[in-house]
Amino acid sequence: MAQLKEIVVSLPDEILSEVDVMAKKHKIDRSQMIAHIARLYIQRRQRLRDMKKGYTEMADINLEIANFCLEADNNALNLYEDMLS
Asked: Quick one: pLDDT at residue 5?
């Protein structure tokens, strides 16, 4: 099990009340609940960083696909207009 460090955290009353309600619901103590919330927050931030990295890496590929499709649409439109004239 990971070594625990004791810290002092100040929270507004309404947030502390919500933490206590959640801890009671999950049958864990306040410290465990805050650790769980912090872990979830860290995981969420990591997922967002990973998503941003993925979107950035895919940007050039998506632009190339979009330009290819635009060119195909323009060619089809030109062919259609030629057929109408």
From this structure: 93
Closest C-alpha to 15, from 39, 46, 32, 37: 37
Residue spans of the domains in the chain: they are 13-84
User: How many angstroms separate the Cα of 35 from the Cα of each of 21, 49, 71?
Assistant: 15, 21, 53
The token pair at 62 is 């998506």
Query: What share of the chain in percent tops pLDDT 90?
Result: 87
Give the span between the Cα atoms of 9 and 30, in whole angstroms.
Answer: 12
* Under 8 Å between Cβ of 30 and 23: yes
d(CA 13, CA 53): 37
What does the alpha-carbon distance between residue 38 and residue 60 come to, in Å, rounded to a whole number?
35
pTM attached to this predicted model? 0.63
